[in-house]
Predict the structure.
Amino acid sequence: NDGANKNNINSNLHSMLSLTHKVVTTKGRKKFNSSDPAVGYFPAHLVRVLRRAQKHYLGKNCDLARQDLLKVSGFCIQCHSRANQNQIKVSMDKIFKAKGSRLEQANFYLATRSFQKALSEYSQIVVDKKFAKEQPVLWETLVKKTIALDIRLHNEPVRVDNLIDVILALPTTPDYFKADLKAWKNALVNWQTEREAPPTSAKGHALKLKALLTQALRSHELPSDHLGHVYYWRMTRLVHAALQKFPKHKLRAQFLYMGGVAYYALLDTGDWPLHEIYFEGCIRAARKQSLAQKCYQRLERSIYHNFLATEPKPFNTNESKYLKKMRKMAY
């Protein structure tokens, strides 16, 4: 809201848009697609959100511009942490003039894919009684982020179960969240009793994803509760593994759809809406098929709801053009 910063803010927005455009190259897409085909669609979504932020800012709607810019920064971290690989070597000294807070360091490690260091920092933050008491909403989000990262990194239910025991024992943990944590513990117990070997084929990955989704849906008491999160976290890990191992398989669209479903269910964890990325990928991979139409309907619903929640004016032209393009691919 400070007019003195207007030139700097505009300059930074232009810089972010130019950096995003540089990512959208044939070489870049091939590099991204080698690890996760959905990543090839990320830059276009970043451009959409940044343009929307710029429009809000120039229209003096600073609150909405701020919300969009926070989504972008969160999305960058989420994208970089989508799989356990490819650490980015950047010195923390170049980011922080002085030593950052523990949370800033954890976010830095996560953004640069130093996953074990990030997990170590987050794990200490979420068991801090003072932090849990003073910042309960942020603390709850970080608990979910820590569990998600642990599952993606180690895939060991006992580790997560032990962490949840410590969090349950904190005097500040609210009762409603204890109910979530206990449901997650039950899911972890079920995980420990699974006897089948991890899937190795594309079909095996698809069947396991369907089984996890079935378990997640059965665990819900209400449509909007968080009791199935462990199953959805496991699904995201399995989706990334499937896309890395079988990037051109005929089941690719199904993997992308499952990724969209899982990420949509995990929106309350504070992640950027990656489900839209995966639903777009599904539409592109299954053009004119019923699965593409199913993904389009979910994508359309998400964009309408997100837009109407933040923008009281008529539907944004850029968003409607994007949906028209996606619909043409799906139907």
Q: What stands out?
A: The longest helix spans residues 290-310. The chain is about 70% helix and 0% strand.
